[in-house]
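Board notes (copied after class):
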Amino acid sequence: MDRIESSAAGVRSLRDRLGRSPTSRRLMAGLAEKLYLLETACGDLDADRPTRAFLELRVREKADGDASVAFFERLCAMYERWAKRRRMKLLPLATETLEDERVRLYAVAGFGAYTILAPEQGLHVLALPAEKKAKSRTRVRVRVVPQPPRAASSRKQWLALARQTLAEEPASGEIVRRYQEKPSPLV
């Protein structure tokens, strides 16, 4: 509640500043973002939804070779930029290679972290250029699960908690987003 009240005060301050500079796109975008996050946080509080999440990205390294790993790294970087821009706390827990898979785990906290990330769960598919006809797509599986209410005091404990929580939840095979770079970029 204290964080929501503090954020509401920040929204009022931005609104006042926007009143003095009504054409400032930067202020308008900042106000819209803060309102969105505040609305999500209030909705989470009212509905007693989880606020923090574990985020896992997983790719088969040998499926498409370098294209798979590059797409995986781009998606990881996308989530890291998203967290930074939204002022989320994103704690990288591990990057591992297990047999033929690369896995990266994060703990994410901030207003609406779970609610905003939950629709990302599933397969993210990159259509490869036409010259790679043998393998026309590469896939990264994204999993999002709510963090349990208990906290961990070290990165090792966070990692164990993330693994345990992810093991209890089934993975989705649904395609949630398709990406294309050529002939023209498209998501």
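Comment from the instructor: The helical segments are 2-20, 25-47, 61-64, 66-85, 113-117, 155-168. The CA atoms of residues 50 and 149 lie 8 Å apart.
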